[in-house]
Amino acid sequence: MLNLISKKRVHSDGRHNAFTDIIFFKGKYYLAFRNGSHHNSADGKVMIMTSEDGENWRKPTLLPILEMDMRDSKLLVYQEKLWYLFPVAWVAEGKAKRSMFSAVCVSDDGENWSNPWPISVEGSVVWRPKLYKGRIYVTFMTKGGQQVDLMASDDGFFWKEISVIYEGQDANETDLHFFEDGKLMAVIRREEQNSIIAFSQPPHLQWRYDEMDIQLHCPCLGKVGERLLLAGRDYTRCNPIYDSWKYWTQDRVIVLEWDGEKFCNPLELDFRDGGDSGYPGIQPDPNKEGEALVSYYKGVGEKVGYQADIYVARIGVQ
Description:
It is a single chain. The chain has a single domain, classed as Neuraminidase. It contains one helix and 26 strands. It has one helix at 244-247; strands at residues 2-11, 16-25, 28-36, 45-51, 61-62, 69-70, 74-78, 81-90, 99-107, 117-118, 125-126, 130-132, 135-142, 147-153, 160-167, 171-178, 184-190, 196-200, 208-211, 216-224, 227-234, 252-258, 263-271, 277-284, 291-299, 308-317. Strands 6, 7, 8, 9 and 10 form a five-stranded antiparallel beta sheet that branches. Strands 11, 12, 13, 14 and 15 form a five-stranded antiparallel beta sheet that branches. Strands 1-26-25-24 form a four-stranded antiparallel beta sheet, with no helix packed on it. It is globular and about 45 Å long.
C-alpha cells in the first residue's frame, strides 16, 4: 500500500521548470530539471538542486551548457560517478522542424562536469538508463516517435542496439526494469492510447505485450525495498471530445505498485490545474526504510506551458 507523507514545492522562478529526475549520490540527493521560458522554447538549460535530507534544498545550479534546448535529464550512478543523459533539440539552418540527438555529461563529485559527449545519431532521443550486471541499458525513441529501441553500453559513451522493443502507434517514452532472473519489463507511452507493458527474457531479442488500462505518459519505474513502483502522468481521465483547453487540464501525477501481474492501487500526488505536469523521478530514501522521494513538475496559471514549478513528494511503501 502506498501513502503520501508530504509534498513541497522546491523551486519556482516564474519560468517553465520541468522534466525531472532524482538520485542519491555520495551522501546527497540530486534533483535535475529543465529550465526554459516555455515548454517547447529553444532556451532550455539543465539545472540541479542538492539536499542532504530530501527536505531542505539548495538553490539550483546550471549544468554544462550547449547553445541548444537541453531537455529531459536522466540521472545515473555508475562506476562511482554521477552521469546525466539528456536529449538536445535545435532547428537546423534551412529546416522548419526541430532536430534532436542525445548526449551525456559525467562528474566525479556532482559539482564539476565533463563537456557533453554525443551518444546518438540525429533523431534518437534517450530515456532513463538502468544498470544490470555491470552494463547500462537504455531506450531510445527513434523514427519521429514511432519506434523504441533497446540499447546497451559497457562504458556509457558507445551504444549497441539489442532489439526493437515496439514499433508504430506513436510509441515514445519507455522506461525499463530488470527482475532478478534477468527478465526485462518496459512500460511504453503511446499517444491517445493506453500504455503498453512489454516483457522480454534474456538475451532480450523477443518481446511480448500487455495493454494497460490507463494512458500513462513519462513512465518512471523504481524499486523501493521489495516493491516495484511506476510513476507518471495519467491521461486516462482526459476526454478528447472536449476542447483543447479542457483536454490539457484533466490529468494527474500518480504512483502505482506492481502486484506481480499488473500495476494497481494508484496514489495521486497532484492534479493538473491549468498547466502541464508530471515527468517524475523515484529515489528510495537510504536512511528511512519503506520511504521514497518522488520528483515531478506542475504547471501554474492559465497560460498552458509558460510557467511550471518543481515539487518533491515523500511517499510511504508498506
